[in-house]
Amino acid sequence: MAKTSSIEKNNRRKKLAKQFGAKRAALKAIAMDQKLSLEERFAAQLKLAALPRNSAPNRVRNRCEVSGRPRAYYRKLKMSRIALRELGNLGQVPGMVKSSW
Fold it and tell me: pLDDT tens for residues 15-66?
C-alpha cells in the first residue's frame, strides 16, 4: 500500500488539472498561435506560467485504484499488476483465470 500522503497529493493534482484544464488549454492555444503578435503570445505565456504548477496534467501520476502503487500500472484496468494478480486469484476479475499446468 502506498503512503496515504502520496495518494492524496495525486488526488489534489487531479482536481487542480480538471479545474484549470479549460483555462490552460485556451492560454496554450493563444501562446502557440503564429498568427497573433509576439506581445499577445508572450502575455499568454506569462499567464500560463502564473497558474499553479500542479494544475498541469502531466504532473498527475497514474496510480492503482486498489493499492495506490505508482508503477506497473495497467491503464485499461486502472490497477497495478500486483493488485490484478491478487484479484484474479480470488476470481474477482471477470474472464481471468489462474493458469496451472
Answer: 999 999 999 999 999 999 999 999 999 999 999 999 999 999 999 999 999 9
Q: What domains can be seen in the chain, in order of their start residue?
A: 1-61 (1.10.287.1480), 63-96 (no CATH)
Give tens-digit pLDDT for 31-40.
Answer: 999 999 999 9
Q: What is the pTM of this model?
A: 0.80
Please report which residue ranges of the chain form alpha helices under DSSP H: 4-32, 38-50, 81-89
- Answer yes or no: are the C-beta atoms of 36 and 30 closer than 8 Å: yes
State how far the alpha carbon of 43 is from the alpha carbons of 7, 28, 40, 74, in Å: 35, 11, 5, 39
Amino acid at 50: A
Q: How many CB atoms lie within 10 A of CB 4?
A: 9
Cell of 33: 498561435
